[in-house]
């Protein structure tokens, strides 16, 4: 039942609204740092004040102030007293950031790159007070297309999606690689292409036991797609096979779910293995077996999400940032 996820009375809070400016400040990223109680979110492309300049992407840093007595990160009882919102320009060596996750003592950014040949993008580690450090910049000398989202697994390896979204938006050159999902082991530098079976891989997540990989294919949202209604707006699942003395590999690709409305641009899992995806009608939720459980409805399309404290879901809706406090039994799993 859906009540095991959302509880009897989920609490909806509009944290920030930029509706008056109509600027999509809350688009991708949505990375939560539990040590600092901060969110980092990237905007969609924003037009520069000068018509001769390229569009920009800004990073929003949201510092959360909890209500007195609401400091326990292990319970679903948490009240936000207020937030502080700062809009930041990315450092010059972090071109067009996209997805963000908490990583080590800082945040890990997906950078899409620019049209300039030397600005190819990649994965960058951003620790407080330092410039971003590049982790992986290319696939054996060939530039990535435009990295979208990343996930860190239990072995501290990174799974990430790379699509031609940057080329569609005229911020990247023509692709030189297929649109693919990659696996990267930072401490050895091993990098492997895992699948090229998706047209426009975007969101990515692993289930709690980390034997299933979920990837969203957002080809239905591809700019200029004349066949959008019959193109993938789909979450695919893969089995992850791990063998001794071998890199992981993917098998058994299958359709896990098709979005009811819009495309599932970002995806995440809760402790019970239920899957949450940002769609045009809100957050659509499925069980690990693919059964549709219900909808966390929000005004306007959603584009990114992440969990904060227990049962706390942050959701990006373009010009607004929402928090939904879920109280279902799945968040009391230990």
Which helices and strands occur, and which strands form pairs?
Blueprint: H1 3-6, E1 11-17, E2 28-33, E3 38-42, E4 59-66, E5 80-88, E6 97-103, E7 106-111, E8 122-126, E9 133-136, E10 138-139, E11 142-143, E12 147-152, E13 158-162, H2 165-168, E14 180-185, E15 190-195, E16 201-206, E17 212-217, E18 234-241, E19 249-258, E20 267-269, E21 275-279, E22 282-286, E23 292-297, E24 304-307, E25 312-316, E26 320-325
Antiparallel strand pairs: 1-26, 2-3, 3-4, 4-5, 6-7, 7-8, 8-9, 10-11, 12-13, 13-14, 14-15, 16-17, 17-18, 18-19, 20-21, 21-22, 22-23, 24-25, 25-26
Q: Kindly state the percentage of residues in helix.
A: under 10%
**Which runs of at least 5 residues are low in confidence (pLDDT < 50)?**
none
**What is the helix/strand order?**
HEEEEEEEEEEEEEHEEEEEEEEEEEEE
Largest sheet: 4 strands, antiparallel
Percentage of β-strand residues: 35-45%
The total of beta strands comes to 26
Q: Choose one word for the global shape.
A: globular
Distance between the termini: 20 Å
**Class from helix and strand fractions:** mainly beta
In DSSP terms, counting alpha (H) and pi (I) runs of 4 or more, how many helices?
2
Mean pLDDT over the full residue set:
93
Whole-angstrom Rg: 19 Å
Widest sheet: strand ordering: 1-26-25-24
